[in-house]
Amino acid sequence: MKGFKEFIMRGNLLELAIAFVLGGAFATVIKSFTAMLMDIIGKIGNTPNFSAWAPGGVHVGDFITAFIAFVIVAAVVYFFVVKPYEAYRRRRGISEEAADDAQVRLLGEIRDALTRNDAQA
To answer: What is the CATH number of the domain that holds 53?
Structure first.
């Protein structure tokens, strides 16, 4: 039971649970935002829902609706999550290169240690 308690109280698991809950809430916000923009696009083109559109019997409306929704979601995620995160990292002086260099250095040390162990065996 002690091991389970330690597992549950580990920081990564709590952070993952919080991210999951916030992700669900964020998905709801994006879904409603996408529905609102689809309504606006539909009013502009006098077609509030593209799903039923099937010129020549080919049902392209579902694809158009899904594609527009995807573009809206991608734009929201990019402009409201990715860009602010990148700005935060720049302000804090956090760079990907520094993390990559540290990982490469650590992997090199592990490789060297394994090589030494093989030579001693």
So the answer is: 1.10.1200
Query: How do the pLDDT tens digits run along the chain, 121 residues long?
Result: 777 777 666 666 667 777 888 888 888 888 888 888 877 877 887 765 677 777 888 888 888 888 888 888 888 888 988 899 888 888 888 766 666 677 788 888 888 888 887 777 6
- Domain hosting residue 114, numbered range: 2-120
- Cβ atoms of 30 and 76 within 8 Å: the answer is yes
How far is residue 23's CA from residue 73's CA, in Å, rounded to a whole number?
13
Give the burial string for 77-92 (b: 16+ CB within 10 Å, else e): eeeeeeeeeeeeeeee
